[in-house]
Structure formats: C-alpha cells, structure tokens
Amino acid sequence: MGAGLYRRTMLTISNNKLVEHLSTRYGRKLASKFIAGDNLEEAMDRTEELNKQGIMVTLDHLGEGIKDLKEAEGYRDEYLRIVREIAKRKVNANVSLKPTQFGLALDKEQCYANIRAVVSEAKYSRIFVRLDMEDTPYTQATIDLVRKMHAGWMTNVGTVIQAYLHRSEEDVEKLSNEKVNLRLVKGAYKEPPEVAYQNAGQVLDNFKKLIEHRLTNGIYTAVASHDDRIINWTKKFAAANNIARDAFEFQMLYGLRMNKQAELAEEGYRVRCYVPYGTMWYPYYTRRLAEKPANLALVLRNMFK
C-alpha cells in the first residue's frame, strides 16, 4: 500500500464511531506512547527531562472541535496556566494550541479574544505561541488570526503551513514577507485532490521548496518532520548556503524518534519536541498512526506486552 493510500485509509477508519469507541475504551495504554500524561504536572516533568537532553519543548493541551464557548474558556484558562507554569519553572518551552479549541468554529471574535489573552500573557514572559493548523475549513481563518495579532504588538505568535496543500507556497510567501514564524509540516488530515497533493513525492518536493524559501530569506523556521529525507536535505541545504544552525529548528513528536532528537541536539541543531497532554487524545493519536505504517507497527508490537 502506498503512503498516500495508507494515510487516507487510516483516517477513514479512525472516523468510524465503532472504531473510536473501542479505541477510547481500550487504547489509552497504547496512546501513552505519544502522550506525555493526563495533566500539566506530568507534562512539565517530561519537559524538564527533555531540556536536560538539550531538547526544547512545545506544550499542547489536547482538544479540538468544542461544542460551546464555555469549553473554549476552559481551554483558554488551561493555556494561561501552562504559560505561567513555564515561566515559573523556567523551562525552555513554548506552547501550541488549536484555534477550534478556542471557539473558531463557533464565534471568530470570541476565539480571537481567547487566543489574544494567551498570547498577551505569553508575551509578558517572552514565550512564543503557535497556532496549530487544522483541516482546510480553518486554514484561512487561522492565518487571519495570526496576521491580525502579528500586525500589532503581538509578534510572539506564529502558525503552521502544510506542504500537501496547493495553496501553501503562496501562503509561505505572504507570511514570510510579514516575518511570521512558521512551522512547516507535510500535513496530517484527509483532504481532497482539489486542495491537496495526493502523491507523496509531490508533497516531499513542495516541502523542500517551502523550506528553501524560508531559509534563503533568513526567516526563523521550524522544520517538523521525522523523515530522514527532509532532515538530511535541510542539513545539507543549510550547510551549502552558510545558514547558521540557530536560524532554524527541527521539530518532532513526543514518543517518536526520541534517539534521533537527542542525536540532532548533540550535533548542535536546535530541536524541539511537541509534547501533548490531556485526556482528549483520540484525534491526535489516530493522526499519528495515519502518518506512516511504522507508527502503527510500533503500537501493534506493544499490544501484548
């Protein structure tokens, strides 16, 4: 099965309600491979451990697709607590949040107010806030939120661009002109051919093109990938073009290629681990399994241990 077909198949299966029910009932132990804990205290302990290895962190309180704005207020308050705890413990970390957690699908203005509260608090402590990119109904709205804040005094905010979307090259050019800090990723949602490349080779080529544009223009960028083709290409491109190792960072997920993360840090590269925590783990977990067969194989090997 090709990589693209595998990903689409897994995402389709994961949306089945019976699969979701069985997974949430029996799969928490398996998901713990990718989740740092149920609460902030556990996630902060993992953060300190990673920092000791020279690895930076971005903390993510899991959750998406809320049903009312009261839930959004709860996520806002939890992220304010994260920011204050980072400052209190003096760990090397920033935060990542999903706009739909903060009410993007319900009320755009209230969503903006909720996120602005977190970004404002974070700026006071010199902490960066990343707005994660979700599926395409929210792409433009997420970019608009970042640009609105970035145009003012809140430049400690950035977002994510997904290489599998046809629109991403134009988005990168516009956001680069505004000096917005970006995380570049392949993309982990099920999208139709009208908006996204379906061929893995096309996605890889576009990913490299986006990285080249950012690094050539000297704008700080997070290259988020576990793919050695991307990692090695980025290292070679930076070396060939005299781009300093502190001009970008590699990002990887908690629980995946942890030895590689430590290795890159030892080589002098900036490395950041995406550390999620919380009880709303199912959507995040299934996207990790869908990314590559090796992730599913890893989970299956551990099922009967």
Automatic annotation (TrEMBL):
Entry keywords, A to Z: FAD, Flavoprotein, Nucleotide-binding, Oxidoreductase, Proline metabolism
Swiss-Prot/TrEMBL cofactor(s): FAD
Tree of life domain: Bacteria
Domain Proline dehydrogenase: 44-296
Organism in which the protein naturally occurs: Paenibacillus glycanilyticus
EC identifiers of the protein: 1.5.5.2
Gene3D superfamilies assigned: 3.20.20.220
Flavoprotein found in the keyword field: yes
Known catalytic reactions: L-proline + a quinone = (S)-1-pyrroline-5-carboxylate + a quinol + H(+)
Protein name in UniProt: proline dehydrogenase
Keyword DNA damage belongs to the record: no
